Amino acid sequence: MTVKWIGKRMMMGVVVLLVVSFLSFFIMHAAPGDPATAFYGGNAQTLNAAEKERISRVFSLDRPITAQYGSWLVETLKGNLGISYKEGRPVITILRERLPNTLLLFGVTMFFIIVGSVWLGTIAGMKAGSILDKGLSILSIATSSIPAFWLGILFISFFAVKLGVLPSSGTGEIGGEGGFWDKLRYLILPATVIIFTHVGIFARFLQENIKDESRKYYVTVARANGVTEREIRKGILHNASFPYLNYIGMTIPSFFGGSIIVESLFSWNGLGQLTIKSVVTKDFPLLMGSILLIGMLVVISLFIIDFLMYSLNPKLRKGGVQ
Amino acid sequence: MLKVNQLSIEINGKRIVDGSSFFVPRGRITSIIGESGSGKSMTISALLNILPAGSKAAGQAFFDNKDLLAISNKEMSAIRGSQIFTVFQDALNSFNPSVKMGKQLYEFSGRRIRHSVAEFHLKMDDILNDLGLSKAIMEQYPFELSGGMLQRCMIACALYVRPRLLIADEPTSALDTLLQKEFIELLKGLNEKQGTTILLITHDLDIVAEVADKMVIMHKGKVVEVGNVAEVFERPKNAYTKRLLESRF
Amino acid sequence: MKSRKMLAFWCIVLGIIVFSTVFSGNLAPYEPNDMNLDEVYLSPGDGHLLGTDHLGRDVFSRLLGGGKVTLTVATVSVLLSLVLGVLYGGFSGYVGGIVDTALMRLLEVFITIPSLIIILSFQAFMQGGMWSMALIIGVTGWLSTARIVRSEFIRLKEAEFVQMAKMFGTPIWKIIISHLLKNSVPAIFVVTLFNFANAIFIEVSLSFLGIGVPPAIPSWGNMLYYAQNDILIGAWWIGLYPGILIFITILAINFIGEALKDPERRRFSA
Ligand SMILES: Nc1ncnc2c1ncn2[C@@H]1O[C@H](COP(=O)(O)OP(=O)(O)OP(=O)(O)O)[C@@H](O)[C@H]1O
Ligand SMILES: [Mg+2]
């Protein structure tokens, strides 16, 4: 059962990545000049005839487009993502430098969003009719309506320009002079912006689920027969977590989209900022590489969430009997 | 043991139960009978303070001289957790779908009377066996069991905790006749050996005739007749009761 | 009753914003692009209600004019995604069976890809005017509409009155339009509202990054693009007001959407 399920999910991920790779390949073809030039960026002029010959053989440039795609895919899977126009370095190297920063930002914000929303949503949901219950419904809509980057601008103007307590942009180096704490200082503003604009709506979703779940028959039965409130709450929370996890999964793609913009605003040295930069400078190999990598991150995140749902929900595991 | 006086229930302004009064004597089996939708289940919900949101209950219900409709939530949970056990009508939805039966049965029974898990397994396995269930169900989830099996699981918990008052809302609706018979025997045993007071809600006049001492007849939210089973069967006073009894043959 | 009042309030708010941007030509005290290099970075006050920017342009007038651009882009894109969503979702839901399953799988794949990525790639090549912007937002924004339309169609298809109509030999196109589509309107309207908010978000974000609507055309996002630098020298008003307006617009749309959402139908259950 489990093996079959994992296989199915993997297939789905592969299909998604294939579509992303089409997009990437399309970029290469739509880029000005011949695809090989696009692939090898600014260095194309310096290539001599023999090398050009080699490239066009590797990429099957004289063959039909499907063959070209195949050859390109093989190169990509080998890790050959071409060379950046602007930096003249292999794309894969640049991506490797950026990835940890994006993972850091993603990990930290997701962590706090989940912890915060589970905390808020549980308290609000368990106390139906309380001030927090009503307040959260409104507050969550309000906070999720704020454009994150605009909040970022306000933060920069206040904390960086006016108070001067936090840096307005940059990433900070863990290995650099300031060490870990320096990095943290750079992280605070972008992370806060993302967390603040997301935590409310996540909490609200959980809150609604908890309220729905609390009205279920089995809860009444348990309560009427003296099952401890602690056990009842555990059960409610357990069941409310399924749609909540599903919701996280559904928002992951747009979550990545949103952090692309925040990264860019704070010049956070991650993949998002890299993507925007490559669009602005029309650095096509870099753009292709970033897209592929972001696509991969999304697929992996979704897989993790699916796996969590699968292991938490016996109905899924048992293949939905009844 | 339980004296209900002028109980009325409204849901969203609609009157569901209207001024019903009846008495459940200690150590006896009392049966509530009445057509579908007559307000039997809602009466139970009102007694246990678990009415759906938007509903109001008025009147009194004395349990050991405490008015169940007036006591604090804390007192109510204490009574629900130690004095009364209720087998609900909808067995299929009575369990949390994502928790194993063993754990849930323990929460319903063993934990309530402070038995260890080991004690619980020892005792529960026998009870399940009496009810025709294997102990393998402990490792299964509610959605893997049938309605009748779940109903028996709930009954097993009731037999386990031996409450002072057992309320059973159509506990045999999903059981075949053979199992029904066995359950009735268990119920009688519980009543005779342990002195458990039982409030049994059912559609089945045969069961009433077989086990109940007293009966309460409800019709459209009103209690139309109360009395000893033998007397009511012999000389029904109310027109609806008469029709009901006639339909039996 | 209370939620009724709330709904009316937010409708009025949104109405005022739409009205004043549509008629920005008549309402704005200055031409949005009129420069006056003697009056750069004036703080809010006499003559310039909300101050001026780095080229001495009136922030208030640009706000109204920019709103027109932003809301136009959002409207056009939403209409486009509405059409695409109804076609895709309606077809999938109506035909059902294997076709439906396949189309829904495909939809799932699309949903997994962050739409911003697709928009960005597109912008890398064809960063044109506001119409191409509206086009790409529309082309990437129909997924949720399709989902809703499909589930509505499936639900309605089984409904008695549709079965009856079929029995009486009503033509298919008539059933689709006057039964299925018509009864899906409330659900479609709500999802379209949320799409509208989303489209504003995207336009604003992209223009803010300098890869959306061309800088020559004022839009709320473009104003924020320049505000990044202005804020560093203390001209906070240039960034504050467009943001507030975006915030209020999206807030109004979200509250209206929430109020209209069928309480029976849960949010993401499509
Ligand atoms: N959650 C609810 N909201 C509103 N009305 C309800 C609700 N639950 C039950 N009712 C109404 O209360 C009345 C009594 O219902 P109740 O469940 O007590 O009937 P019953 O006698 O137990 O019937 P049955 O034998 O079918 O179980 C019914 O008319 C029903 O319409
Ligand atoms: Mg009932």
Structure description:
The complex is a heterotrimer of chains A (322), B (249) and C (270). In chain A, 77% of the residues lie in helices and 0% in strands. Chain A has 322 residues and is mainly α. Chain A has a domain of 182 residues: MetI-like fold, CATH 1.10.3720. Chain B is built from nine helices and ten strands. In chain B, the strands form two sheets. A six-stranded mixed β-sheet of chain B has the order 6-7-8-3-9-10, sandwiched between helices. Helix content of chain C is 73%, strand content 0%. In chain C, helix 3 runs antiparallel to helix 4, helix 3 runs parallel beside helix 6 and helix 5 packs antiparallel against helix 6. The C terminus of chain C is likely disordered. Chains in contact: A-B, A-C. At the A-C interface, helix 1, helix 6, helix 7, helix 8 and helix 10 of A face helix 4, helix 5, helix 9, helix 10 and helix 11 of C. The structure holds adenosine-5'-triphosphate and magnesium ion (MG). Magnesium ion binds next to helix 1 of chain B.
Helix/strand layout:
The complex is a heterotrimer of chains A (322), B (249) and C (270).
Chain A: H1 2-30, H2 35-40, H3 49-58, H4 65-77, H5 91-126, H6 131-144, H7 148-162, H8 179-214, H9 217-224, H10 229-265, H11 271-280, H12 284-312, H13 314-317
Helix pairs in contact in A: 1-12, 5-6, 5-8, 5-10, 5-12, 6-8, 7-8, 7-10, 8-10, 10-11, 10-12, 11-12
Chain B: E1 2-11, E2 14-24, E3 29-34, H1 40-47, E4 55-63, E5 66-67, H2 73-82, E6 84-87, H3 101-108, H4 117-130, H5 147-161, E7 165-169, H6 177-194, E8 197-202, H7 205-211, E9 214-219, E10 222-228, H8 229-234, H9 239-246
Parallel strand pairs in B: 3-8, 3-9, 6-7, 7-8
Antiparallel strand pairs in B: 1-2, 1-4, 4-5, 9-10
Chain C: H1 2-22, H2 24-27, H3 59-95, H4 97-112, H5 115-126, H6 130-140, H7 143-157, H8 160-167, H9 172-208, H10 220-232, H11 237-260
Helix pairs in contact in C: 1-3, 1-11, 3-4, 3-6, 3-7, 3-9, 3-10, 5-6, 7-9, 8-9, 9-10, 9-11, 10-11
The structure holds adenosine-5'-triphosphate (ATP) and magnesium ion.
